[in-house]
Design brief:
GO biological process, one term: negative regulation of cell division
Number of strands: 8
CATH topology: Rossmann fold
CATH class: Alpha Beta
Mean pLDDT: 86
Order of helices and strands: EHEHHHHEEHEHEHEHEHH
InterPro entries: CobQ/CobB/MinD/ParA_Nub-bd_dom, CooC, P-loop_NTPase, ParA/MinD_ATPase
Structural class: alpha/beta
CATH architecture: 3-Layer(aba) Sandwich
Radius of gyration: 19 Å
Helix content: 40-55%
Protein name: Cobyrinic acid ac-diamide synthase
CATH superfamily: P-loop containing nucleotide triphosphate hydrolases
GO molecular function: ATP binding; ATP hydrolysis activity
Oligomer: single chain
Distance between the termini: 22 Å
Pfam families: CbiA
């Protein structure tokens, strides 16, 4: 049973494509649950590719994209009574997309088939997601590379923004770009901003120096872990990784050092 709660922490993960955001978010979810400090946990997959359900080992049938298309198609049909009825049921329709397990709840943004700009629809859905989110203690958002979509469709304020990067030059360029989007352009409002380097192989010092040049805190470094490659290859959920997984151990440390201590607002 989900209970209402006005004090929560919002954690978002972003970074360029291919750096392992989905795998990181799955292991972050597991580590939060293992910490027993997450309270009621909501995981939001804001990436239209929707790779997170498989990585978590769950099946999701409905998405926010389906609700968005329903609203748009009903509005285009021009039937007034249907539009009024749909508007009154919006919060319920959003709630229907929520997947609930014994340990956490999951919300998928999904794709939309409707073309064009529908800012008013996005605003309505964003409001419903915000109302739904108030029922949780901890919210984890797996986002796209850019922050605009997260701001526009999910939330515009987070407590902890994690930029996940690999060790490539392009990855570091994306870290610098997102840092400027937050600190200079204020695309999204966040309390703490930092980078986690993924798939690290004996180059910690160089990465630390690169982060210093960019002017961003290093939240942690996740070592290259072949067990993740193997699990991805055979389609096994990363929530079933062995307890001694190197990557999982690093993310547990990150949770203990940066999330468990994070004040709920």
């Amino acid at each position: 049973m989900i209970r209402a709660n006005r004090h929560k922490r919002v954690i978002a993960v972003c970074g360029k494509g291919g750096v392992g955001k989905t795998a990181f978010t799955a292991m972050l979810t597991r580590s939060l649950l293992e910490s027993q400090k997450a309270g009621d946990l909501l995981v939001i997959d804001a990436d239209p590719a929707m790779g997170l359900p498989n990585t978590l080992g769950i099946q999701v049938e409905k998405t926010i994209g389906h609700v968005r298309d329903l609203i748009i198609n009903t509005a285009r049909a021009g039937i007034g009574e249907d539009r009024v009825d749909l508007s009154s049921r919006l919060d319920y329709l959003v709630l229907e997309t929520l997947y609930e397990s014994d340990d956490y709840a999951f919300l998928a943004m999904g794709r939309t088939d409707s073309q064009g700009c529908f800012c008013s629809v996005n605003d309505l859905l964003k409001k419903s997601i915000r109302i739904l989110s108030e029922r949780f203690d901890t919210i984890v958002i797996d986002g796209e590379a850019g922050l605009e979509q997260m701001n526009r469709q999910v939330m515009n304020m987070v407590d902890l923004l994690i930029i996940l990067s690999d060790t490539s030059t392009r990855g570091l360029q994306t870290v610098e770009h997102i840092t400027k989007m937050v600190t200079e352009d204020h695309v999204i409002d966040c309390t703490q901003l930092g980078v986690v380097f993924n798939r690290v192989i004996n180059n910690e010092l160089l990465l630390t120096q690169a982060a210093e040049r960019i002017g961003i805190e290093v939240f942690g470094m996740v070592p290259q872990d072949q067990s993740i490659v193997h699990y991805d290859l055979i389609g096994q959920p990363l929530t079933e990784l062995p307890a001694d997984s190197l990557a999982l151990s690093a993310i547990r440390d990150f949770v203990a050092n940066h999330i468990v201590q994070l004040d709920c607002r």
